[in-house]
Amino acid sequence: MPTRTRPAEPHGHGPHGHSHGLVDRSITRSRDGLRAVAISLAVLLLTSIAQGLIFVATGSVALLADLIHNVGDALTAIPVGIAFVMRSFVAEKRAGYFVVAAIFVSACVAAIAAVDRLINPQTLDHLGTLALAGVIGFIGNEIAAQIRLRAGKRLSSPALIADGNHARTDGLVSLAVVASAITVALGFDLGDPIIGLVITVVILRITWQSLQTIKADPGPAADPVDA
After folding, report:
1. Does this model's pTM top 0.85?
2. Fold of 20-216
């Protein structure tokens, strides 16, 4: 009797089949992305809480601008995390646009606060504590940036890379809070709201750069899971 051959499995390892290995890589990518998002989110939330407590004590507009931006930066991790759950490039790109919108809103809020302080000056106290808040912001953002950038490059995620660059720049913005404390200590009280406005300009620059990063990304040539 002739030997009956079995038909090829539809999920084989050929170029046109669904392979278990590729699906597993997709799941692994999703888990790695979520882990990076969750850890960086926790770091930024702890940073924001610490800065919030110091803002209550000092009332610095420069610190408020940095605090608002850090909170917004932390919350942008949510849509990026959802995109990783969906394992969709389109969702990641939309999450990237959400990140850009959140950055822009934080810039507007910071600008309003700085202008209000220019019109209604207020003496700052606890300058050493204020400078400490800036240092905390820098360290927290740099840790979050390292987590996001390493994961973004490893997973080829433009949204995560853009968010990592955003966090890294935020760390430099936090150092402006230290400059604010120094200028006020030297007797220039308007230095605080002026630096708040400078921070706003930096945030707007980040907004533009992030938008260009997301728009320039063409996405994968083909989805490996559906190829």
Report:
1. no
2. Alpha-lytic protease prodomain-like (1.20.1510)
